[in-house]
Amino acid sequence: MRTDESDMEVRPWRRSDLALLRAAASSFSPRTLSARFMIGTTSLPTAYLDRLLGAGRDGLPWLGEVALSGGELIGIAECAWEPGHPVEFALLVADAWHRHGVGARLTGSLLKRCVQAGITDLWAQSDLGNTAAVRLARSTRWRSTPVGDWAVSTSLREGVRWYTATFAFPGRSAAAPTSNGPSGCLIESAGGAVNLSS
After folding, report:
1. What is the C-alpha separation between 103 and 117, in angstroms, rounded?
2. Residue 33: count of CB within 10 angstroms of its CB
3. For residue 183, pLDDT beyond 70
4. Helix, coil or strand: residue 116
5. What is the pTM for the complete model shown?
6. What is the pLDDT of residue 59?
7. How far, in Å, CA of 164 to CA of 22, rounded?
8. How far apart are the C-alpha atoms of 148 and 67, rounded to whole Å?
9. Could you tell me how far CA 83 lies from the centroid of its own chain?
10. Where are the alpha helices (DSSP H) in 38-86?
11. What is the per-residue burial (b if ≥16 Cβ within 10 Å, else e) of 114-128?
12. Strand ranges (E), the chain
């Protein structure tokens, strides 16, 4: 797989992208998949693929962005929520594309869409060894957008690193992010996957 960043396209998810994700399954190592789903797995979980099949339907809000190169899917970021429940933001990047800016571009694009959808408080988690998640959180901290800034904080609890992101519109300072568990998005990154709510 080529890793030419100039050839990368980031755009909103289309239902036809599920076939591209299935075709790209072998590009995600067990390590990356385990970091993304926070469980030991060697393949994309069937329940996850089934959920994507119905994404945005059945009244469940869902946002997704994909990164493509040469017509192949190299990364996906998604945000899903149910009324009254925390928003989950997740990110998965093909191993060959780790450290090539894919996660940052997907995250930036999805964060803009979160603001447009009225989502201004996100949370995520990762295991302590997930240095990609830490790098992503640092690159997102105080990320400016045309309509305001994201502030990101981290904390350690019960052997898990928690991330909280809060958005502030111009003229308003971001409220101090809290780390009291799910109340926003889950950004998942492992080498290319983070749980940030994330």
Report:
1. 21
2. 22
3. no
4. helix
5. 0.80
6. 62
7. 31
8. 24
9. 20
10. 46-53
11. bbeeebbbbbbbbee
12. 8-12, 62-69, 72-80, 88-93, 121-127, 144-145, 148-157, 160-168, 187-188, 195-196
